[in-house]
Amino acid sequence: MDDRWDENMAGYSNGVSAADLDAKWIKARASNANGQCVELALLNGGQVAVRNSTDPSGPALIFTPGEIEAFLDGARRHEFDQMVAL
Q: Checking DSSP bridges between strand 48-52 and strand 59-63, what pairing results, if any?
């Protein structure tokens, strides 16, 4: 079995090289033009991978659909606004 596979998550485990994922990466239209962005990719099985665009072969964090849904809900409710200078 591939050591990148985590049976408990039913998919890839956190820290897998983003370059090893067969994925189409996307980023927000409002992303910084100099490439400093967070990118996401939908994986087989519905999981979502997240990477730093400045390190495209670096580690990816893997989230379940429910985790992404909870994060996006919090973002819509402005729960993370204190994380950035407005």
A: antiparallel
Task: Classify residue 33 by its DSSP letter.
Answer: T
Any domain includes 52: yes
Q: What's the domain count of the chain?
A: 1
Q: Is residue 86 part of a domain?
A: no
Residues 28-59: pLDDT tens digits? 887 777 777 899 999 988 999 999 998 999 99
Q: Give me the helices (H) in the chain, please.
A: 65-76
* β partners of residue 6: 11
Domain presence at residue 77: yes
Q: State the pTM of this model.
A: 0.79
**What pLDDT is attached to residue 2?**
45
Helix, strand or coil for residue 64? coil
The reply to whether 30 falls in a domain is yes
Q: Which residues pair with 67 in a beta bridge?
A: none
